[in-house]
Amino acid sequence: MEGRRRLHGAFSIDIVLIEPDPNQPRKKIDPVHLTELTQSVRRHGILQPISVRFVETTGRYRIVAGECRYTAAKQAGLTEMPCWLKTPEEKQVLVEQIVENWVRSDLNPFELADSLAMLRDANGFTQKQIAEETGKSAVEISKLLSILNLDPDVQSIARSDDSGTISKRHLYAISRLPAPAQTTVLQKVRQQNLTAVDVERMTERIIRQMETGDHRGKTTMFRRSFRTSLGTVTFAFQRNTISDKDVLAAMHEVRRQLGEG
């Protein structure tokens, strides 16, 4: 076929014929890592072939594994690169991508969780079957999928986090809490740079307090703010759900206390 020549066990394929996989779990590439890899490619070339599969409908080679190397090769100005040509099923493509990306510490937890959910939904897999396909434990699969049940606002913050302070362990712990508490704890993680161990202990404490009904020293679980001409007034409640009537009652109590002062 045009645009490729056979090597020892692989093909050297024109880089213009190679394309990234839009369903690749990894959505972001660390710019520092990419810069270092590009410099290495300029000096040494591509030392390890990437894996691709031929897509008949487009006549191009879609990347199965090695998108970082492909991007670095393009930036380094290479016109062709070594590739292992594979013919995997769609299911197996995603499995290989998940396994390859799992070991990367800089991977956003949601990139893995989203790809696991895609694998589950597309194939009707149970968590046990996903564990068997990926070679990971069912417990780890369950934890990753659990973060997709986080409050949408919490997910939005965590998905866009580039600081690296919000890890899988942080999110696992936070996912055990009701939505208002999730937001509060995540704010503390970002403001106070809490470790995963700190958050796990905080989560256990909140859960115990909820189960026993003990509100003494309880972490604020619900906030309601009102902007006025003089500033912003915020009420911090120690309950999961708050109605307008509760807010009005709190306002009246504040007025009474000010009057007594």
Describe the model.
The protein is 50% helix and 15% strand. It is built from 11 helices and 8 strands. Helix 4 packs across helix 6 (138-146), helix 5 crosses helix 6 and helix 8 runs parallel beside helix 10 (196-212). The radius of gyration is 25 Å and the shape is elongated.
Structure class: alpha/beta
Total strands: the figure is 8
Order of helices and strands: EEEHEEHEHHHHHHHHEEH
Give the uncertain stretches in residue-range form.
none
Q: Strand sequence of the main sheet, in spatial order? A: 1-2-6-4-5-3
Largest sheet: 6 strands, mixed
Q: Can you tell me the overall shape?
A: elongated
Strand content: 15-25%
Q: Whole-number average pLDDT? A: 81
Helical content band = 40-55%
Number of helices: 11
Question: Rg, please?
Answer: 25 Å
Distance between the termini: 88 Å
